Amino acid sequence: xxxxxxxxxxxxxxxxxxxxxxxxxxxxxQDAPNExxxxxxxxxxxxLWSKAPDAQAQAVLDRGMRKRASYDFLGAIEDFDLLxxxxxxxxxxxxxxxxxxxxxxDYLAALADLSRALDLAPDHIAARAGLALTxxxxxxxxxxxxxxxxxxxxxxxxxERHLLAEGGRLAPxxxxx
Length: 177
Prior knowledge:
This protein is an all-alpha fold. It contains eight helices and two strands, in the order E-E-H-H-H-H-H-H-H-H.
């Protein structure tokens, strides 16, 4: 079996258990005094989420992310498909594929991937925010608000927080006439 450029093991190893480290980072970001401090903590969260189960999976994840960054969306999806086939229990494969599908405005496919990512990693704040954005694009504003509120309870500094502020696309609708 080949996964990209080299031979692979028959089975993907388990992804590293990052739950305790992530809980610590969530507490830190909740206590962050400002957006810059929160961004530094969020970057550390991304380091955890994007640590693949083995070197082969890491190479495919990194390659797919490079392709996405260079707007090779078809190539990125192919790589994320390979990663998911090899490591079906690794949440970031689904999250990254969802991101590409969201960019391509394939919202239903993004929704399915984000749901799977959150099944595997319920505290994946970025996937939760992505789910909120996807619901928003599908016109399901109540569901979008609910998901964004969950994400903001974990990280109150998310850039998407502005969507719930007055004038934002997800701002609660008032009773005024």
